[in-house]
Amino acid sequence: MFKKFDEKEDVTGATQLKSSVQKGIRKKLIENYPYLEPHLEEILPKKENFKVDKGAIKFILNGSSIMCPGLTSPGAKLTPQVPKDTVVAVMAEGKEHALAIGLMSMSSEEIQSINKGNGIESLHYLNDGLWHLAEKPLN
């Protein structure tokens, strides 16, 4: 049902976020997902710096939502006139198949103009529980 995906993605060309931006992301995650706080250090260790652009692929493959700056960065392609609450496919540069399915947290126009916060909430991604469920034969 699902296409095989090569997880050995080349993640060159990533840039590091400023520590103040990293703190802001952690703070916003805790505001939006308070039950995540005890596990945040495990998910986003303070000792490791956030990287964006192609480096975000590994985070998306772990179920992270896609932030607006990643959708508006150079090289990103955001389909115009997509309304909020639309289910969308999340594609990686150079890949034929989607690596995630998400729900638009705001319209594509809002993502372009606001350019802050969560743009797409991840609903399903490669190698998640649904993926593994689909690998099992139906009896």
From TrEMBL:
* Sample GO molecular function, one term: RNA binding
Q: Which residues form the PUA domain?
A: 51-127
Family matches, as Pfam families:
PUA (PF01472)
Which InterPro entries does this UniProt record tie to the protein? MCT-1/Tma20, PUA, PUA-like_sf, Uncharacterised_CHP00451
**Which GO CC terms are listed, alphabetically?**
cytoplasm
- Superkingdom is Eukaryota
For this chain's UniProt record, which GO biological process terms are given?
formation of translation preinitiation complex
Q: Which NCBIfam families match?
A: unchar_dom_2 (TIGR00451)
Annotated family = Belongs to the MCTS1 family.
- Write down what this protein is called: PUA domain-containing protein
Can you name the source organism?
Caenorhabditis nigoni
Q: Which gene encodes it?
A: Cni-C11D2.7
